[in-house]
Amino acid sequence: MPQTEAQVAAVLVACHELGVPVVARGAGTGLSGGATPHRFGVILSLARFNRVIRVDPLNCLAVVECGVRNLSISEAAAPFGLYYAPDPSSQIACTIGGNIAENSGGVHCLKYGLTLHNVLKLRGFTASGELIEFGSEALDSPGLDLLSIVVGSEGMLAVITEVTVKLIPKPPVARCLLASFADLEAAGNAVAAVIAAGIIPAGLELMDRRMTAAVESFVHAGYDLNAAAILLCESDGTCDEVEEEIGHMGAVLKSCGATRLSVSQDEAERLRFWSGRKNAFPASGRISPDYMCMDSTIPRKRMAEMLRAIEAMELKYDLRCANVFHAGDGNLHPLILFDANDPDQLRRCELFGAEILEASVHLGGTISGEHGVGLEKLNSMCVQFSPLERQQMIAVKRAFDPKEILNPGKVIPTLHRCAEYGKMTVHRGLLPFAELPRF
Amino acid sequence: MQTNLSPEFRGTQQGATAEAILRKCVHCGFCLATCPTYQLLGNELDGPRGRIYLIKQVLEGATVTRSTQQHLDRCLTCRSCETTCPSGVDYGHLIDIGRQVIDERVARPTREKFVRWLLKVGLTSSFFGPAIKLGALLRPMLPKTLQNKVPLPSDIESGSWPTRIHARKVLLLAGCVQPSIRPNINAATARVLDAAGIQSLVAGKAGCCGAIRVHLNDRPGGLNDMRRNIDAWWPTIESNAIDAIIMNASGCGVMVKDYGAALAADASYAKKAARVSALTMDLSELLPDLVSALRTRVIASSQQLMAFHSPCTLQHGQRLLGGVERHLQSLGFKVEVTLSENHQCCGSAGTYSVLEPKIAYQLRDRKLAEIGRLKPRCIISANIGCIQHLQSGTSIPVKHWIEILDQAIV
């Protein structure tokens, strides 16, 4: 648990020399196992790097240590009328360092972008303990854009200790529109229709009935529990802009079959509407002992198709699934509910999850939206990327960390893992993946 | 989360309760954000999620060490994690079980054993009152650490106790340390209630609510405190003479409201305990009645800003948030809470400030710094422990809010 950069460097130098794996860790709120300790490694906890170094309202930026909580940045910027836009649901607890590692999104990233689009500069250490900086306080910096490689690299390329983030002015007005739908498919189609109408809402989220029922008992947000699905659509800007956009969105949603519309009347109500969404994952603990949260993306227009496919999978695996999506950017978070004390349920749950990811790729999407690959989606990487693509990823990793001590065994599957994962059915004497070396 | 209790705990009542709580945790880590010890120390083992894992491992048969015990000791039991937890984990009861199980397996150093015994016996004994009076006189000669715990001679003056008889009656728990350290709190409570037409009865044989012994891991002793209080109150309850049991220390309130759960397995007390818990209210829960009865009789100074520190036992333990400030404001008082960290513990936490002074004083100073930003003339709170602890770090007077109300009645 270092407290200074010199201590971080010293840990890395020692581990590099001894070839000991290092797993950097923030608040441990990640959802793909990225910060899971390595059996033979050390955990480099950065929780004590929790100071906001400076807020620069003139240049609209803040310099913070990596262990500062996401929400603390906006709190520190609030006196200047500024805030940090990416807001993962765990923002109360998750650290900015973890956000960098996972390139986290949040309900407002549809309009304001992911972590990558809101970070200007990073300072940290390489695997061998050398100080390194990426980006600059300007919007662009000379040379290759290595900042974009490091953001979202899941702790495999460097250990970041200091982050310079962009702050943006807090919109004067924000209002949230709640729309109820009698079936999931209509809700899915409404999402595509809103975007197709040329509106980019500040947030556009979907929750199904199972999910709203679970969170309502904790937050009392006033969700329509009779609706098969609800959409939360946010508009922000000046008073006139918001009024016009809310009106426009309302009309589109109505034409798509919304059965009930309600608009937040004040800030307290808006926050209450969102609090249900922000607490959705952990609140599932109220309806099921365990859940597996998936994170894939699909093209928006195929939302309804995907929801139908998930419904079919519920029957196939005999497990319930609650859905909560960043619908606007096509990022799905199906929560598969199961009981980990029943080994067969765990097995079925993992198959269910893998099938959702495969279906997402099949529909033209990806296996990860914002939670990263970590340990969880290692196998599914083989569904998404060819062996050649994966080799290139390994080459990038080795360019930064030749000894592979930073978070080894995560994100990029090694060849033997794919071969192990693939079922070895030899059909008509033809070996699958014949090009792969066997052990 | 997944659980696999060892045969020793499987099928036991303790094991079943702990397992049901553990199963609700989805280890999301939201609790780290509002845990005072994690915020100070940055070690996951000193946060709720880490402690939950430690307890789970012990119940699953892992070796228990002194270090496990210390990580659990460091928890303030402020239960801030419970109001943050979206999945509804009943952490307070889980850590009680964890501490009990670990204390049965790990011996404490002799000095620590002695201090804990002294607190347990000393704070609840009849000698505590005279000792405090003597201490107050000798205060200037005492070392700083003891001075912090001993009131000023002016603090132990109380004023008169009302003698009028009213049809509406409540039982008031005098508490164990409160009558000796700040007797005016009980007297002020009785006077304000009297002014609002409510008579306060104090059962002579009632004493410590049990929290001191329960939190020092003497559960049987704590349960005996509870039974003694139930016996002391029962005749009055049975005769339907009262409509509530009032707690003016939120630390006691949270305990008495839990009597029903604590004595659920005791056939001869379970029903009575449940009734007692159902009748128990924090003094602030009477505020709606007090406000309407006293509105014309209170002259509040709207110039003097007061900072209200909401005790953890009030806002997290009893989930009573905002009531005190709102009602006092409606009577014309100028009351504010800190702009940030209002949810954070002041470090008092019962006997914690004696057992873990380093953390307790760090938290106290952090809380006082937040309060200081409001530049208040007076700090008010709702629990004797917090009042005494905060007062030890500031020259701004720290009082119970009922004392302010008492002074303002004409």
Q: What kind of sheet is the major sheet of chain B?
A: 4 strands, parallel
Low-confidence stretches of chain B: none
Named at the architecture level, the CATH assignment of the domain at 5-169 in chain A is 2-Layer Sandwich
Spatial strand arrangement across the major sheet of chain B? 2-1-3-4
Per DSSP, the total helix count of chain A is 15
Instruction: Report the helical percentage of chain A.
Output: 25-40%
The CATH architecture assignment of the largest domain in chain B turns out to be: 3-Layer(aba) Sandwich
Break the fold down into its secondary structure elements and pairings.
The complex is a heterodimer of chains A (439) and B (410).
Chain A (H helix, E strand, L loop, with lengths): L4 H14 L3 E4 L16 E4 L6 E5 L4 E5 L4 H8 L4 E2 L12 H7 L6 H4 L6 E7 L5 E5 L10 H5 L8 E8 L1 E2 L3 E9 L2 H13 L6 E6 H11 L9 E9 L1 H17 L4 E4 L3 H12 L1 H4 L6 E4 L2 E2 L5 H15 L2 E6 L5 E2 L1 E5 L4 H20 L15 H7 L2 H14 L14 H7 L18
Parallel strand pairs in A: 1-2
Antiparallel strand pairs in A: 3-4, 4-8, 5-9, 6-7, 6-8, 10-12, 10-13, 11-12, 11-16, 14-18, 15-17, 16-18
Helix pairs in contact in A: 6-11, 7-9, 11-12
Chain B lengths: L12 H12 L11 H6 L6 H12 L6 H8 L6 H5 L6 H15 L4 H15 L3 H11 L5 H4 L20 E5 L5 H4 L1 H13 L2 E4 L9 H5 L3 H20 L6 E3 L2 H7 L2 H4 L7 H10 E3 L4 H8 L10 E4 L3 H6 L5 H8 L3 E3 L15 H4 L1 H16 L5 E4 L2 H8 L6 E3 H8 L2
Parallel strand pairs in B: 1-2, 1-3, 3-4, 5-6, 5-7, 7-8
